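USER: If only I could read C-alpha cells as easily as an amino acid sequence. It would mean a lot if you studied the pair and described how this chain folds. Here is the record:
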Amino acid sequence: VAHVAALNGVLGDHLERTANPLAIQMRLRRDGVALDLDRGTLAARIDRPASTAIVAVHGLCMGDLAWSRAGHDHAAALARDLGGTAVYLHYNSGLHVSVNGRRFADRLEALAAAWPVPLARIVLVGYSMGGLVARSAAHYGGLAGHRWRGLLESMAFLATPHGGSTLERRGADLRAQLDLN
C-alpha cells in the first residue's frame, strides 16, 4: 500500500491520465477501508459517531494509514481529545493540489450530508501537501456554496509548505525529464 501511494505521489497524474489501475481514487476511509458516503452505511461502520468530524489529510507520497505509527494513531488521538470522530482522506498526491482540492470539497459535502448524527463541526488536519489540499478544498467548497463550509471550525497544518516546496519543484523537474507530463 505504501509503495502504491509513493508511486502515485511521483507519477499520479500519468497513472490517472492512462487509466492505470494503480492510480489511487480519492476516498474517505477508516481503518484503511473506504467509507461509502450514505447515512446507513456510515452508521453501521462508525461506532458512536460524534457531532465533530476530524478529517486527516496525508502528505505527498503517503496514504491514509500514515497517521498511525507504532500503535499510536495521531488523528484518532486528536479526535479523542476534541470529542470527535476521525476519518481519513486517501488520495492521489501526484495530481495537482487544485484538482485534489475540488474533489475533496465534493467528498466533504457528501460526508456532511451522510453523517449519521447531526454534524456540528468539521476540523481538517493536513500534513505537508495535505494542508495545501485542505486549504484548496476550503476555497472550492466556499466558491460552490457547500454546506460543509459552514461547519468548518478550524484547520491545523503540520509541516505544510504554504510558500512552496523544494520537493515539489524537484518532482516537477523529474517528471519533465521523464517526459511524462
